[in-house]
Here is the input.
Amino acid sequence: MDSERVEQFENTDGAVDTPFVPGEFLRTLTSQPGIYQMFGQGSRLLYVGKARNLRRRVSSYFQKQRHTPKTLAMLAQVTRVEVVVTHTETEALVLEANLIKRHHPPYNILLRDDKSYPYLFIETGHGTPRMSLHRGAQKGKGHYFGPYPAVTALRESMVLLQKAFRLRTCDDHTFHHRSRACLQFQIRRCSGPCVGHISGEDYARDVADTIRFLEGKSDEAIRSLGARMQAAAEQLDFEEAARRRDQIAALSKIQERQYVAQAGGGDFDVLAAAQENGQWVVYVSFIRNGRHLGGRSVFPRHTEEVRAPDVLAAFLMQFYSDKEVPGNLLVNVLPRSPASLAEALGSEAGHRVMIDQPQRGPRKRWMALALTNAMGALRQRVQTASAGRRRMLLLRELLELPETPQRVECFDISHTRGEVAVASCVVFGEDGALKNEYRRFNIRDIRGGDDYAAMEQAVHRRYARLQKEGLALPEIVFIDGGAGQVARAQAALDALEIGCIQLCGVAKGTTRRPGLEMLHIPGWAVPRQLDDDDPALLVIQEIRDEAHRFAITGHRARRGKARQESDLDSISGIGPKRRVALLRAFGGLRGIRDAGMEDLQRVEGIHLELAQRIYDFFHVGRA
Here is the structure.
């Protein structure tokens, strides 16, 4: 269901809450399928549910005497209920999933991991196809393979494929402007099509063999390479024959790394839901063309007192709302309403989807492996959570806070002699770094190198946004800097009338060696230096170093982009081709600046009017 349609069902901001009378409301309900939304004070959406029969399902909340504590807590906050009738239960399922993903109601089961997964993309809309990593909408012309559970798994596969087929991975701009082969050609990971080291026909065959291999037709790809090796040998082109031999050997090694499913190959996902001490996990293994691409653990939230069928039902609709759905989903426990779920997923995917609980054979072994991985992920999460709680307790004791913090943020500023300053904000919780909540700020309208003003601007922008969106504020904010930066950060918080955040400046010592940091905290008479082996200092160093890494990465990217921009880009009529022609003709900006009108007109594409414009830009405009 598209976003425009979802908008139809969102409550109007500013609606006035009136006393909710369940009896009167229930008498107006229909018995048709649809979704229901429960709102609290201030029109806050508490819960979204779907029903085959709206009257029966919604009535059960207010007529039954026994409910779980979680449901009772929700019902105590309900000020109104709204329903939306749909044509079918399948349509209700899709609408429910879209609203949950859009609004994150606090009493629905929610997924922590809603990122898009990477795909391997072979672009065929170009005369010399390129192999690359791709996320997001699949609008480009070409072949998409995946999804891969992590970028690291995809990059590893790309390296192996480069060794076997030597397809280019450079972007089109680099490809079109090379005059000699790059390092990838030297280390035998590219065949050098940019400078003619391979013919177009041979490169096209390599692309076709790569696609065959990724589609699971590895035997066909190897046969094709074998035939080309034999043909080269017969023509006494032994160098080419040796290259094809090496390709076949590389493909054989890739095959050894893959366990091919014994159930006819194909595409399917294996989903195992497991629970321990109230924490649920769903482990997803991706099988494409009979090859195991790896797996990922997802930890749903708001899963108190729920059962596996409910967890999987909520998981399937949310997880696949913006991801490719294979034709077969194997689960260790059948979700609630499996037939309706399969129909809803199939209608969104555009093909038939089957949800099955394997009982025997190879698919049962895949399920056992996924369940083992799920339990391992749970145990690892328990250990990580324990370490996270210890970190928060150490910070609470150090800063003498009344309660254990749940959220910690840290700011850092990065620039090169005042050039393109970037501020970073990293976020940590009991689960460790919350990387999807990291933010960067491009510092604007301040004098270059003024770290104090940059810090004040970043802190103000960050918490003004959180206040506006009604999001949670951190209990502790670390500032990479001394008393000056802390004072400006405090000024930003005071301007926003935020008094619930504990600031702490982390100033490096004179030698900038780890362990010599001075802590500047408002209210302390003097800065404090902890022992270099103090556990609390190690926690602070970890958070501060992560903020520094995130800031410097953003600064370098922005600085590189700024330095690639040319003064010529601001001259009307100068595009990429004319810019390159000018730079080649005069050897750089200095040569162009020193050139006269006649010299400029000798360059292809530079007419009299444009030459005058270029000359005026460097002389009249800068006099």
Notes: DSSP finds 21 helices and 18 strands in the chain. The first strand starts at residue 34 and ends at 39. Residues 514 and 532 are 8 Å apart (CA to CA).
